[in-house]
Design goal:
9 helices; single chain; 2 domains; Rossmann fold; about 260 residues; nine-stranded mixed sheet; alpha/beta; two-stranded antiparallel ribbon
Length: about 260
């Protein structure tokens, strides 16, 4: 049986109107009023990749999510879709983590699980878009890392991956265990039947904190956030006039030259 781990991040809904996003200058955190959190879209693609393998190969899928004040109903959606276990890495210290710290905590949890053949993550989270946590986990576990996957197949002790490139795709083979980061081209997460959604809300969840993982996040931080703000967009429109089309064109050229645009 294959042991598959999928790392899923809870994020603020990236499809919500921009007007709902606010910044708390004191805590340097994004605030979103009136819109519930969601599973990061690329991570749901990663879960779908795991479920497709499970459909053809006997497998156990364990979902891991890391954070503070995690929404259990949101993350239970992974169980409704077909995951077998859900582990929440939840602690007050798991807040505002940089990519290195996040990768270190997730790698520690995966080591605690012990059995893993495939690890899936999205290519990046939908909030910070850093795209380096997956590779960081693979480096810490000393296993192969394949990025930008759009199709994944397992053949005995190897994994075959189609990876998106700028001009098409390339095929990569790697021995197991391996970590794969998944793109949206692989496909959206399947819809779960209502019966499974209701059943998932009653299934047990495993919770680990920093003490159980032997992690002190504050000692791992590599990045200090100095400021977080929403850029101010300024729009300016100036109408160039002239007595005729030739004069208007000449005035426009002169104005552009004054602004050092031409």
């Amino acid at each position: 049986m294959l042991n598959i781990i999928v790392c899923i991040k809870q994020v603020l809904d990236p499809e919500a109107p921009t007007s709902t996003y606010k910044v708390d200058a004191e805590t340097k955190r994004m605030l979103q009023q009136g819109v519930p959190p969601v599973m990061s879209p690329f991570d749901t693609n990663a879960l779908e990749a795991a479920l497709r393998i499970k459909a053809t190969t006997p497998s156990k899928i364990t979902v891991i999510s890391l954070g503070k004040n995690l929404s259990k109903p949101v993350l239970r959606q992974s169980l409704a879709a077909g995951a077998d276990d859900l582990i929440l890495l939840e602690d007050n210290t798991f807040d505002g983590l940089d990519s290195y710290t996040t990768a270190t905590i997730l790698a520690a949890a995966i080591k605690k699980i012990e059995k893993y053949d495939l690890i899936f993550t999205g290519i990046q989270a939908a909030d910070w878009n850093a795209g380096i946590v997956g590779s960081g986990i693979a480096e810490l576990l000393k296993i192969p890392c394949i990025t930008h996957a759009k199709k994944v197949e397992v053949h005995e002790n190897n994994v075959k991956v189609e990876c998106v490139t700028t001009d098409g795709y390339t095929i990569i083979d790697a021995p197991l265990p391996a970590l794969i980061t998944v793109r949206n081209e692989l496909g959206e997460l399947r819809s779960a039947p209502i019966k499974e959604v209701m059943a998932a809300q009653k299934r047990p969840i495993i919770t680990w904190n920093s003490v159980m993982l032997g992690i002190e996040p504050e000692k791992l931080r590599r990045v200090e956030m100095l400021s977080l703000f929403i850029p101010t967009k300024i729009s300016r429109c100036e109408v160039i006039k002239g007595d005729n089309e030739e004069q208007t064109a000449a005035n426009l050229a002169l104005r552009l030259k004054e602004e050092n645009i031409i």
